[in-house]
């Protein structure tokens, strides 16, 4: 029996191509650089932590004001109060 064109079907060649493709993929994976990304949820948590510090300062200020009011030592700055209320009265008189 005579076999013609033995080079036409080469079972080793597809294996070699597959192995070479895997090697190239490994090289690409190993050459990647590390990346860090922060999710939206993590950003919100960071903001919440920062706001909790502000909330603690605000709570301390409120507690201090409560103590001053209960002790009768709290003084209202009338000029400052009038300046902050003036825009509201101007709006209502224009309507």
From TrEMBL:
Residue ranges, annotated region (Disordered): 1-35
From the UniProt record, give one GO term of the biological process aspect.
bacterial-type flagellum organization
Q: Which UniProt keywords apply?
A: Bacterial flagellum biogenesis, Repressor, Transcription, Transcription regulation
| Residues spanning the membrane | none
Question: Record's superkingdom?
Answer: Bacteria
Annotated Anti-sigma-28 factor FlgM C-terminal domain residues: 34-85
Biased composition of type Basic and acidic residues is found at: 20-35
InterPro entries from the entry?
Anti-sigma-28_factor_FlgM_sf (IPR035890), FlgM (IPR007412), FlgM_C (IPR031316)
Q: Which Pfam families does this one have?
A: FlgM
Q: Which family does it belong to?
A: Belongs to the FlgM family.
Any idea what this protein is called? Negative regulator of flagellin synthesis
Q: Which organism is it from?
A: Paenibacillus typhae
